[in-house]
Design goal:
2 helices; lipopolysaccharide transport protein A fold; single chain; 7% helix; mainly beta; 23-stranded antiparallel beta sheet
Length: 303
């Protein structure tokens, strides 16, 4: 892992954060509507080319369009088809949103959108078969597969839970993907992924595995912290196992220092190679050279 390899963590958390924007389209009541009535029945009013939009400080910051809308007269229920939307978090950024169809209970303030696709600046595309929205509780969820693709990143996971008020997003299980850089390609797996937007903290939890060209890292938890849109520290905890070219290093904690391109293993670190076990105060793995350095070594040879 070098500095460019950190694209994985920044892009994953950032692109997953776009999920919160999709909830924004539906969680906020429309400020204005411009429907064209097509027909009326005893139970349903049908509209075509429906448009909802919202303003912030006099400027339109989101829009939602539907080719067809059905408003039920005898119950608080709306159906939408062929949905498109956009959101502008700032004047220079546009996030696009699409769905084949959706529905909303206006009394309970819950809804669902199917075949969801979110596009950010033509750089990342996120897809899911459906998403559920709880407007009163500011919750977005899905039991389906979440599929993220970018220029250098792919991320796949099962199940989504997002709290738009607390700004926390989780992919619930079976997280896996790849990241490509100019020099290397990495694969990763974990049972769960969490992104806390307020803290700018990304966490891979349970059975975490990262594989590079000459390196494999296993641990219980991997955390990535950021400051000012830049990765500050990557820390692995719990049953850390780092192997490279026949050498295995073990510890309870490992920290990746970006500037030095080195991983430091602490808390009872041990290195094993050719039946020779060496313990030390600290073990340092240099990603550039693939070599290990042991501080204060104590050696034991297995016969």
């Amino acid at each position: 892992m070098n500095r460019r390899d950190l694209t994985l963590y920044v892009a994953a958390g950032f692109a997953v954060g776009i999920l919160l924007l999709s909830g924004y389209y539906f969680a906020k009541r429309p400020d204005r509507t411009t429907p064209r009535t097509v027909e009326k029945t005893d139970r349903v009013i049908v509209f075509r080319d429906v448009k909802y939009s919202g303003e912030k400080k006099g400027a339109v910051d989101w829009e939602l369009n539907a080719k067809l809308a059905r408003k039920y007269i005898d119950k608080p229920f709306i159906e939408l088809e062929d949905i498109e939307g956009l959101y502008k978090p700032n004047p220079d950024t546009i996030v696009l949103f699409r769905g084949s169809k959706g529905e909303m209970n206006t009394e309970d303030e819950v809804g669902r959108v199917e075949d969801v696709e979110i596009v950010y600046k033509d750089e990342y595309r996120l897809k899911s078969k459906n998403m559920e929205f709880e407007f009163k509780n500011s919750k977005v969820s899905s039991n389906e597969i979440v599929d993220l693709k970018g220029k250098r990143l792919t991320l796949l996971g099962q199940g989504l839970a997002a709290d738009t008020k607390e700004q926390v997003i989780r992919i619930n299980r079976d997280v896996r993907g790849t990241v490509d850089t100019e020099e290397r390609s990495f694969k990763f797996w974990s049972d769960r992924f969490t992104y806390k937007i307020k803290e700018d903290l990304y966490t891979f939890e349970r059975n975490v595995k990262v594989i590079g060209e000459d390196m494999e890292l296993l641990c219980d938890t991997l955390q990535v912290t950021s400051k000012d849109d830049k990765v500050d520290k990557i820390e692995a905890r719990g049953s850390v196992r780092l192997s490279s070219k026949g050498t295995l290093a073990k510890s309870e904690r490992a920290v990746y220092y970006l500037k030095e391109d080195k991983v430091t293993l602490e808390d009872s670190p041990t290195i094993i190679r050719d039946k020779v076990e060496m313990k030390g105060q600290q073990i340092v793995y240099n990603l550039s050279t693939g070599k290990f350095l042991v501080s204060g070594p104590r050696m034991r040879i297995e016969r």
